[in-house]
Amino acid sequence: MTVTRDPLAPPTRAEYCVIACAEAWREGGEILASPMGLIPSVGARLARLTFSPDLLLTDGEATIVRPDGTPEGWLPYRQHLTLVASGRRHVMMGASQIDRFGNQNISCIGDWERPKRQLLGVRGAPINTLNNPTSYWVPRHSRRVFVEKVDMICGVGYDHADGARHHRIPCVVSDLGVFDFATPDHSMRLAALHPGVTVEQVREATGFELTVPDEVPPTREPTAEELRLIREVIDPAGSRGREVSS
């Protein structure tokens, strides 16, 4: 199904989120992009079609694909692990909880021995975060996600990553803005606000004290060509609007 949309209509909140996710892979070179989730996937494909043409996209199994999904190469599991362990992959994961130093939890809520809720499990989060750059996508920014301390560390944050050669958290993108760790102690900083969002809204939805610069820039606006690619080529069905409302 294709959704008809005025190509001159202003960018939606979801499209600003796509741009913010795409920017995570800017100037990445020939690395493997592993986006998890709809909007990160649209962002990775947009980056490949525009400012990061050397980016490698995967179908999640053993095939390197073009932005339209057609096969471009073969990626056996052994080679995939080589990329992971050598820092030549940039994954964008989700987070059920994330704290001020970038520790992420996708395993359980509550005490590990008697959790209130069982989630996905640790899965590949430790090896992802210790061995290659890892960013995060949070479609619903709230105090339940942005917490003072995660209940269990799955993805490793800056305060637990001593000696990890390829550990880096380039950004956290939410439906409210973009965050990084460009502070002396590597605690989370508000790096950009999506249009229509205020600093007060972000602070109210965050369960710890953020570093907030005196001037917070807006998220970069998509170009006309980027909007065309998002709306007509990458996601003509408008699925992005179901993940982040306007």
UniProtKB/TrEMBL annotation:
- GO molecular function terms attached to this record: transferase activity
Keyword annotations of the record: Transferase
Pfam families this protein is in? Answer: CoA_trans
Does the keyword section mention Endoplasmic reticulum? no
In the record, the note on similarity to other proteins reads: Belongs to the 3-oxoacid CoA-transferase subunit B family.
Please give the PANTHER family that the UniProt record associates with this protein.
ACETATE COA-TRANSFERASE YDIF, CHOLESTEROL RING-CLEAVING HYDROLASE IPDB SUBUNIT
Record-given protein name: Acyl CoA:acetate/3-ketoacid CoA transferase beta subunit
At the highest ranks, the source species' classification is: Bacteria, Bacillati, Actinomycetota, Actinomycetes, Kitasatosporales
